[in-house]
Amino acid sequence: MELSSILERAVLLYGREPSVFCGDHAWTYADLEREALALAGGLGAAGLLPGDRVAILHRNCHRFLQAAFGTLLGGEVLVPLNVRLDAATLGEQLGDAGARLLLTEARFRPLAEEASAKAGGGVRVAEVGALHAAVGGSAPALRTPDDLAQIYYTSGTTGRPRGAMLLQRNIASHSLMAIAELGLADGDVWAHVAPMFHLADAWAVFAVTWVGGRHAMFPDFEPRPVLEGLRSRGVTITNLVPTMLARLVAEPTARAAPFPALRAILSGGAPISPALLERVVETFGTTYVQTYGLTETSPYLTFSALKRTLRDRPAAEQRRWISRTGRPAIGVRLRVVDDSGRDVPRDDRSVGEIRVRAPWVTPGYWNRPEETAAAFEDGWFKTGDLATWDAEGSVNIVDRKKDVILTGGEKVYSVEVEAALSTHASVFECAVVGLPDEEWGEAVTAAVVLRPGEQVEPEALAAYLKEHIASFKIPKRFVFLPELPKTGTGKIRKDEIRRSLARAGS
User: Fold this and answer.
1) In the predicted model, what is the mean pLDDT of residues 116-124?
2) At 395, is the secondary structure helix, strand, or coil?
């Protein structure tokens, strides 16, 4: 399972066909291999050795593909960085990873230089094209399945980001699973719309290349160009977070023409509301699959694709099922356990923590042996996600352990409240958190973004929720915001919402 063989196969079978599209330009897999080898040579000429960490700060682009394969061919460890982070945080991650080189593009050169300075100034900064063009190609470094391939820093919605290590075998086994689960083939065109510095998209670099599919790059997320690109590039499959989907279906041009090539839209990172799911299916006329995974799991653990015994059920029931977190992927062993480590009943009511085993689960966190040890119990990875599961084998996340709200002696799962609140016609998106409260311990608090032109009073939202959830779960406070803070991958930052609302005394 040497990852460099993935590109080798693509070149052998599809090397002369345009396969990578970025802007108005197209490259073949032979072009990609040539430039990846040149980059590997450039890294070697710069004094880097197999195992050295090479960070990258770059938008979605063919250069990112070159870096992914170039570091594999050179034997270095790639460390993708979030382009939306500040220089201090980037510098902290560079220092933590012990990176020797930071690859970037002209747009982010000043940020990269500042981040290098924050890391102590020992990290060289170079633009991908300039470095790989400096020297000729080189032979691939010999690697083993247990060699470290990449380090991804967790999105950091809680606590300090940690570097999750992925071995060659983690990435390879996850790729094969995704190929099987999603039926990926050489006719597929994957749209890199979600940021490639995150595994929500980066896993497709290897899986799609392995089958000889094609890559369509979208450097920036703007609804109208993305919609046009999905049509013009004949995109067949992609992964988008719910906030992206909400913006796409709200774009007036979304229904201007069909998407005949699109066969599936994947989504993860946050639950999707039934109302948004319905608009997505109607707008794109394609299959929707909810996914669930973590940075530490390469990322996918579950898919909500309908199993054959459910395909003859009424449409409403099918949509309810596919909007759930999903059933375990091929190769995943999954448990839902209570605080004593016992499996909870599959009654879709009993709540427990999801724990998993799979060939693509990280061996641990970079330079964090204590945190690595704490993340596992008897060989099972503790996800920190709380869920129920049903008789069909489908799990459904109700909250993160750290996000459960304890109010008046009762547990409130924020995901349930958010799901109910998001069905209100005036609500565009929302986040529910607990804030310290003398009377209740924690007060259920909702941060709400309304749809353009909409106005609604807090009392009206509370009255609406009384028809959908128990009274103790209804937020004591509603705070209206122009937008919700998010990570680079579109996840809502509840930690930041808690801090800002607490400072404001809401």
Assistant:
1) 94
2) strand
